[in-house]
Design goal:
CATH architecture: Distorted Sandwich
Strand order of the largest sheet: 10-11-12-13-26-22-21-16-19
Largest sheet: 9 strands, antiparallel
Order of helices and strands: EEEEEEEEEEEEEEEEEEEHEEEEEEE
Oligomer: single chain
CATH topology: Beta-galactosidase, Chain A, domain 5
Shape: globular
CATH class: Mainly Beta
Number of domains: 1
Radius of gyration: 19 Å
Number of helices: 1
């Protein structure tokens, strides 16, 4: 494994924005950035051997500092939404920054995705670390987090998310990369085929906060148990699709067991033959079809991204779990170790 480091620029505070390129023995590459612990490029072959970059990103690496779509980043402390920016923990109320309608999203306006992480190379891996102090964006207790990336010769990118706290807090970490298996900037993902290991989904209110119900996907546009084009049912008059202008929903993964890694999703693109298998030990997967990408910074190669130019497959805990005791707990206490795994396995169908 060859890992190169390059300074892409500096923040207004004078800190270096660093890009790490991981190259396996076959020459296929992943690029990472310490701004948001982000995946900024994934270069893999199609069925003819042509290499393409399948992760959306920006032409100017400095745009990762101020952008809005959370492109490729690790959001936190709590990915996804917490209703009205409020929760109670051990009898004490906490109030978070409101940054998504009436709700808190992705840890707030200065969350992990808006932060410069400390990066380092450890043998064949890249490790990003961040310290989040007690009270940051309203969250309790100090929190130390690491995002560890491993890239192997089978084109498997594994992200290990680790955290510890000195008190008690809530935490939900994921990666928010947008993928287009035709190549970044090569049209929409509506014709990509997607299957999910999920027989239920979480209905939401109009602000995309779960109601608390688990509802069967049977007979709905939310049914991806058998692979289908992402866009096939997207224009149906169905609440989940109308609320988000496309898919922006969470599916509990069937057969979830703590610590058990299993397949959550399979994405494929017929013309190139590229595939992406996503495995995790997280309890759920949020699928977001890039419904509001139009207007984001210039894409790589000078291409403009439009709505639906990429799909994010975000393995994570349930949204708003701190307010819904029947959801799997996302509470972390002193002495406990938070450890979650997400594997992006890139392949080719003949």
């Amino acid at each position: 494994m060859d890992i190169e480091q390059k300074v892409a620029g500096f923040t207004p505070e004078g800190d270096a924005v660093v890009v790490y390129t991981m190259r396996n023995s076959k020459g296929y590459e992943v690029e990472l950035c310490n701004m948001g612990a982000a995946i900024v490029a994934v270069r893999v072959p199609d069925r003819s051997g042509t290499v393409g970059d399948v992760a959306l990103g920006y032409e100017n690496r400095m745009d990762y500092i101020t952008e809005g779509p959370c492109m490729g980043k690790v959001p936190g402390r709590y990915a996804n939404r917490i209703a009205k920016g409020h929760f109670e923990l051990d009898g004490k109320e906490y109030h978070l920054a409101i940054n998504n309608g009436p709700n808190a999203l992705h840890g707030g306006p200065t969350g992990f995705h808006k932060s410069l992480w400390e990066g380092r190379v450890e043998e064949n891996r890249v490790v990003f670390a961040i310290d989040s102090p007690d009270g940051h964006e309203g969250y309790p207790s100090d929190l130390y987090v690491e995002a560890v990336y491993d890239w192997d010769d089978d084109n498997r990118l594994e992200l290990t998310l680790l955290a510890q706290t000195n008190g008690v807090t809530v935490i939900n970490l994921t990666n928010h990369a947008y993928f287009n298996l035709k190549g970044a900037g090569e049209g929409t993902i509506k014709d990509h085929l997607l299957s999910l290991n999920a027989s239920h989904y979480l209905p939401t209110d109009q602000t995309l906060v779960p109601t608390g119900e688990l509802r069967s996907v049977e007979g709905t546009p939310m049914d991806f148990r058998t692979a289908k084009p992402i866009g096939r049912d997207m224009d149906e008059q169905f609440d989940a699709l109308l609320f988000g202008k496309g898919y922006d929903n969470c599916w509990p993964i069937d057969g979830f067991e703590a610590g058990k890694i299993q397949q959550a999703a399979l994405l494929s693109e017929p013309t190139t033959g590229r595939t992406l298998r996503v495995l995790t030990d997280q309890p759920a997967v949020q699928v977001y079809t890039g419904n509001w990408l139009s207007g984001c910074p210039m894409g790589k190669g000078g291409k403009r991204y439009e709505d639906y130019s990429g799909v994010a497959i975000e393995c994570q805990g349930y949204p708003d779990a701190p307010n819904k005791p029947h959801f799997p707990s996302q509470v972390l206490r002193k002495g406990e170790r938070y450890e979650r795994h997400i594997i992006f396995e890139f392949g080719v169908e003949e």
